[in-house]
Amino acid sequence: MRVLLIAPPGAGKGTQGAIIAAHFDIPHIATGVLLRDHVARKTELGREVEAHLARGELVPDELVVDMVKQAVIDAKSAGGGYVLDGIPRNMAQARAIYDIGRELEMTANVVLHLKVTEEEIVRRLLARAALEHRSDDSEEVIRHRLEVYRTLTLPIVDWYAERGILVSVDAMRPVERVGRQILTALEAMRPLIDYVPESARRSIDLTGLGAAFGSD
Ligand code: ADP
Fold first, then answer.
1. pTM of the entire structure?
2. Three-state secondary structure along 70-138?
3. 17: Cβ below 6 Å to ligand 1?
4. Atom of ligand 1 nearest to the CA of 8
5. Does the Cβ of 94 fall within 6 Å of ligand 1?
6. Over the chain (216 residues), what is each successive 10-residue block's mean pLDDT?
């Protein structure tokens, strides 16, 4: 199972990525976590990206793409699955990730899009800011990260919809329900993934099924 996770800040990407990775026993490659780790260890990459992270700007594409390429190579030797969380965030990254996938025979099977309203995002991130001390969780930087998401990241969701590998999920509900819905959808798709040719794929919108999935 190879999954790309696309979601605005605060939608629960990290949590859902970890749930998927644990369920399918595949590596969880979270770009934000990897980048923050470089900053904490003061590596050369960490020094280069630190200011971008603090301002809520995207770090330069080639830095994050090279970092992720290595992680995908490692995922290939670890069994061939992955959850990529936090990339792609713009069209250039989407193309780069696709090229890397083609080169390594590791293209994504599914793109999961978590949908949350901006109001809820700001509420969640400010709540998180009170608990954690991430340099980018002030209200001003949160608004900027949302703007980056809206203008650069959201347009690539349409690109995946056209390619027929998009699954949209309503992430406004409690984390366990969202997780359950995601795992149910991925389990249902699993047997088909290797057999459905790219030309025959259809995107799925599960956002209207919240009540059905979450009612028990
Ligand atoms: P969030 O989704 O809450 O913004 P992440 O941990 O995914 O949190 O990302 C935090 C920061 O890391 C981003 O604001 C950005 O500065 C940097 N970052 C993460 N992934 C990428 C990426 N693919 N391209 C550029 N910058 C990235």
1. 0.89
2. HHHHHHHHCCCCEEEECCCCCHHHHHHHHHHHHHHCCCCCEEEEEECCHHHHHHHHHHHHHHCCCCCCC
3. no
4. 2
5. no
6. 95 95 97 97 98 96 98 96 97 96 94 94 87 84 93 94 90 93 91 68 67 46
